Amino acid sequence: MLTISSSFNVIDSHTAGHPTRVILSGVPKLVGKTVLEQREDFRNRFDHLRPALLHEPRGHAAMVGLVQVPSSVADYGVFFISSYVYLDMCGHGSIGFAKTLAFTGALTPESGDHFTIETPAGVVTVGVSWAADGSLDKVRITNVPSYIGLEDFAFDVDGVGEVRTDIVYGGMWYALVDARPLGIPLVPENASRLMQLGSHIKSTLKEKIADIAIFQGSPAPSVLFFDADAPDSATHFLVLESNKFDRSPCGTGTSARMTHLLARGVLTPDQTYHARNIFGIPFEARLAGRTEVDGRAAAMVEIEGSAFITSTQTIFFEKGDPLSKGFLSR
């Protein structure tokens, strides 16, 4: 007879290929008035649950989790956990959360065409559209403000040479790097090479910008390789770690990229930006408004995409399991 020490009910989905695991039950009650405070309470007291629920043998390096918590300022409160870091905002995860709400019946065509989510980065508005059969079709996330932190920054990378980047905030910090001068096409068969290169660039960049105040206290910018085939269209490949890349075009990264294109005058405010992943699945981005953050011009970008349910399950932790803490094999 099995002896189960703990269990968690979850629903898994993917948004353009990248997973979101919504944890429905099993997380202890958290302390805090805001989502950020509750996230920090989870980090301080229950961080062991993050690798247990996301790493092998119950997940994998690219798994992203979402914990729903109370919010006093929005319809829902959520925070995002991943295999390495806590994410302040996650576009693909927010789209996956909307799909999960529809799957469970918490969100229906009668619920209206939008709702709000409090995240650690701020409150985002989620718009939804429904198919003729009553299923959720498209999800639109009006993201937190995106703004440029550092423009046209050149630095040397061992074995690569000079790399130029613009570092832009879209809910997390992203180093935008044109892939074409590097000579590695953004295609699935190059994923391993791109992860290694992106991780190398990321670690070098982290040292180069360590003394710049705006980046202090935040995770190092992730490297977003892009390959533009037109001013309003590009393939994205976001490197998170040496063994982890975003399968989706990256919602918050797409916000950052569009903000940069608008600032450069490459895109006009009425244009739609089409960001594809290496499998050809797109996100669409549009300018929803303008604002300022600490005196910096900022853009409110709307990201549109779709998510698909992949499983519902109960994750068990059997007493005596030597791998209950989770592990990463690469």
TrEMBL record:
<protein>
    <recommendedName>
        <fullName>4-hydroxyproline epimerase</fullName>
        <ecNumber>5.1.1.8</ecNumber>
    </recommendedName>
</protein>
<dbReference type="Pfam" id="PF05544">
    <property type="entry name" value="Pro_racemase"/>
</dbReference>
<dbReference type="GO" id="GO:0047580">
    <property type="term" value="F:4-hydroxyproline epimerase activity"/>
</dbReference>
<keyword id="KW-0413">Isomerase</keyword>
<dbReference type="InterPro" id="IPR008794">
    <property type="entry name" value="Pro_racemase_fam"/>
</dbReference>
<comment type="similarity">
    <text>Belongs to the proline racemase family.</text>
</comment>
